[in-house]
């Protein structure tokens, strides 16, 4: 398998982004290195044609804008999400049981729970604190070494373990953190880690949003290195692909990259796809670079196109019967158009035709996924964004195995293929 120039950047991004807050911080850093200017939602904006800007909300969602050099007539939008299923700490997580300090957790999103047992777990997220001068500050925290584990129960003590027994997340998923520890030790540990990472001392902890994560780094897998195995491929892979495509563009056309938080729990938040973040930003852009009225805004949105990127279910060689016979995407077989007649995906024939044309222009193969008629179908930010904004949209993604597991698998070629297609989309003058 040849060396792919984006692969090392992808693996580094995945490892440095254990939470949505870290992912957004890393994306923002990359944008600033490429000349993008940060905007503050609470300040007045002064925008110029051809400028490159970005804005965040809740530090976990981000919108990057490449403003057109000419009139604001249409926008090429790429959408993804920054969150992944997993285990989040409860507000008062510390509890002591039988000589062990443990952490109470809440399941975030539709996580596969079984793969979380016996993994080396780090801790990351954001912490809000009051400094000794009275200022309230939010800081990122990442403890990348194994500090916790959810130990399995030996099969000798649970003979039904391999027979599909349900896992109780309240009673069976609490990780162990410290032998002989007391409940007060957890706050002391947080303060120690904040000092080690930020030099902060004499602070009062006010609140936090923290998650456990697998410390095993991303890796190429397979005899020829055909696969990528990593945590959070769903959907940091799409965030990375969209960012690479935007940065590789020629800068002529109006383009938007939006990466929302909270997709895995329904997107209903101020920074989620069902919230007003994207529309707020686009209306402010239209007010400065367009004609500014409601009719002009509707014309802009209807002339634009959105490609929602979220990974697709690849055909699993051990479970081929879980796919419709004519719609089993192959890993390393090219990007996947996701279709659902009941609008769980936003694709229609017009938007799919545009994407197929983009793939043909780049010499990239394209695949299609439709779920079996006797199975339920997941969803993405695509239908939500289309409903909230009204922009013509389609859903695509890289094929992967193990979606919502603590460690997922995709093909090493597919990211580059989708980057090429999305770069062509951002550079495309005619969206019809």
TrEMBL record:
Signal peptide: none annotated. Pfam families: Peptidase_M18 (PF02127). It comes from Bisbaumannia pacifica. NCBIfam families: PRK02813.1. Its EC number is 3.4.11.-. The keyword Transmembrane helix does not apply. Keywords: Aminopeptidase, Hydrolase, Metal-binding, Metalloprotease, Protease, Zinc. One of its GO terms (cellular component) is cytoplasm. It is an enzyme of class 3 (hydrolase). One of its GO terms (biological process) is proteolysis. This is M18 family aminopeptidase. GO terms for molecular function: aminopeptidase activity; metallopeptidase activity; zinc ion binding. Belongs to the peptidase M18 family. The gene is apeB. InterPro entries: Peptidase_M18 (IPR001948), Peptidase_M18_dom2 (IPR023358). CDD domains: M18_DAP. Its cofactor is Zn(2+). The lineage of its organism: Bacteria, Pseudomonadati, Pseudomonadota, Gammaproteobacteria, Oceanospirillales.
């Amino acid at each position: 398998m040849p060396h792919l120039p984006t692969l090392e950047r992808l693996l580094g991004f995945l490892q440095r982004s254990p939470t949505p807050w870290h992912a957004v911080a890393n994306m923002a850093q990359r944008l600033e290195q490429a000349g993008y200017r940060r905007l503050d939602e609470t300040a007045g904006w002064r925008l110029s044609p051809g400028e490159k800007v970005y804005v965040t909300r809740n530090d976990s969602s981000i919108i990057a804008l490449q403003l057109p050099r000419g009139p604001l007539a249409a926008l090429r939008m790429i959408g993804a999400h920054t969150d992944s299923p997993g285990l989040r700490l409860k507000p008062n997580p510390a509890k002591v049981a039988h000589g062990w300090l443990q952490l109470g957790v809440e399941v975030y999103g539709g996580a596969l729970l079984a793969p979380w047992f016996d993994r080396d777990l780090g801790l990351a997220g954001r912490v809000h604190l009051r400094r000794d001068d009275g200022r309230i500050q939010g800081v990122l925290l990442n403890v990348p070494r194994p500090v916790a584990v959810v130990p399995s129960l030996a099969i000798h003590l649970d003979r039904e373990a391999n027979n599909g027994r349900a896992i109780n997340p309240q009673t069976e998923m609490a990780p162990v953190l410290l032998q002989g520890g007391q409940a007060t030790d957890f706050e002391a540990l947080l303060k120690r880690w904040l000092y080690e990472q930020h030099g902060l001392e004499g602070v009062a902890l006010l609140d936090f949003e923290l998650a456990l994560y697998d410390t095993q780094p991303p890796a190429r897998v397979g005899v020829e290195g055909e696969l990528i195995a990593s945590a959070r491929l769903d959907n940091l892979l799409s965030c990375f692909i969209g960012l690479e495509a935007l940065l590789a563009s020629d800068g002529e056309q109006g383009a938007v990259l939006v990466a929302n938080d909270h997709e895995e729990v329904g997107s209903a938040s101020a920074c989620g796809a069902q919230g007003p973040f994207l529309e707020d930003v686009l209306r402010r852009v239209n007010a400065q670079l367009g004609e500014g009225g409601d009719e002009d805004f509707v014309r802009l949105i209807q002339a634009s196109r959105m490609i929602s990127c979220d990974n697709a279910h690849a055909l699993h060689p051990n479970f081929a019967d879980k796919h419709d016979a004519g719609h089993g995407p192959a890993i390393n077989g090219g990007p996947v158009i996701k279709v659902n007649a009941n609008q769980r995906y936003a694709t229609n024939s017009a938007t799919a035709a545009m994407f197929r044309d983009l793939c043909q222009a780049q010499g990239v193969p394209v695949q299609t996924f439709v779920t079996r008629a006797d199975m339920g179908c997941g969803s993405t930010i695509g239908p939500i964004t289309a409903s909230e904004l009204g922009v013509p949209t389609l859903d695509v993604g890289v094929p992967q195995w193990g979606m919502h597991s603590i460690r997922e698998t995709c093909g090493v070629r597919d990211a580059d293929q989708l980057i090429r297609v999305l770069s062509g989309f951002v550079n495309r003058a005619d969206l019809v």
